[in-house]
Amino acid sequence: MRTLPRKRLFFASESENARFFPLVFRERLASVSLAGALAAMLFLPCPAHAGAQRYEPLAASVRAALSAAVSDRASPEPHFHSLEEKIEWLTEMSRRLARRMPDHRQRLEFLKTVRYEAQRAGLDPQLVLGIIEVESGFRKYAVSSAGARGYMQVMPFWVKLIGEPSHNLFHLRTNLRYGCTILRHYLDQENGDLFRALGRYNGSLGSPEYPNLVRAAWEGKWAWRPRVLQASR
Q1: Please, which residues bridge with residue 66 across strands?
Q2: Is the pLDDT of residue 75 over 60?
Q3: 77 is catalytic
Q4: Cα–Cα distances in Å, from 134 out to 21, 46, 167, 175, 212?
Q5: CATH code of the domain made up of 49-232
Q6: By the 8 A CB rule, do 25 and 193 touch?
Q7: Closest alpha carbon to 10 in 56, 65, 49
Q8: How many Cα atoms sit within 13 Å of 199 on the Cβ side?
């Protein structure tokens, strides 16, 4: 089991997105002030902390379900409640991502695909953005020392286990499809316990470092609420 360097451990205080976390996840994480967390993320480097999902035998029914999930060819059009929400979300997320992806067209394609694949798997798109930041630093061709690949650092054994030989883990949509499907599988396996599901995803089950990093990125950098909802409160 890989241990992440403690000096790179970031925390974030409770935010609106905390309602997505199971209580058991929040109880296991220590908190510091939001100002301290944001200061750490602004002034310290945020390198990728890619892990390695571990191969575990799957029941035939689970394997068939996961295989069907990664092979669906539906058009990647994300859902928005309104045109205003679509414009607002894409504009704001594009602004936040501009330093990592300078090309505007590439950013929009990436963000639409993230939102589509996250929604398809029943995940918060902001959570997926936080995972990508921690796993690969938004580097499309990132490869970990364990061999995990792409934005969401998917291990190649998943292609053999549930995919097809033609699946390329460096392809944007393929990588996000696998990553979101795998995290959904781990969430189901852990009965919704996000702390443990993230540990399985990173290959560091039981260690708090990786879930803390994801939480800090999710809440500190990618948290978002539509203005129309904020105005109604």
Answers
A1: none
A2: no
A3: no
A4: 18, 8, 24, 15, 10
A5: 1.10.530
A6: yes
A7: 49
A8: 17
Cβ burial, residue 232 (10 Å; 0-12/13-18/19+): exposed
Burial (CB count <10 Å: 0-12, 13-18, 19+), residue 119:
middle
Predicted confidence (pLDDT) per residue in 88-130, tens digit:
999 999 999 999 999 999 999 999 999 999 999 999 999 999 9
The share of the chain scoring above pLDDT 70, in percent, equals: 65
Q: Which of 117, 133, 135, 209 is catalytic?
A: 135
- Residue 143: phi and psi, rounded to 5, are -130, 125
Phi, psi of 141, deg, nearest 5? -105, 25
Q: What is the pTM of this model?
A: 0.71
Q: Centre a 10 Å sphere on the Cβ of residue 157 and count the other Cβ atoms it contains.
A: 14
Domain spans of the chain, in order of start: 49-232
> Helices 104-120 & 172-189, crossing angle to 10 degrees?
30
Q: What is the DSSP string of 76-134?
A: -----SSHHHHHHHHHHHHHHHTTT---HHHHHHHHHHHHHHHHHTT--HHHHHHHHHH
Tell me the two tokens of residue 114: 């993230």
DSSP reduced 3-state for 226: coil
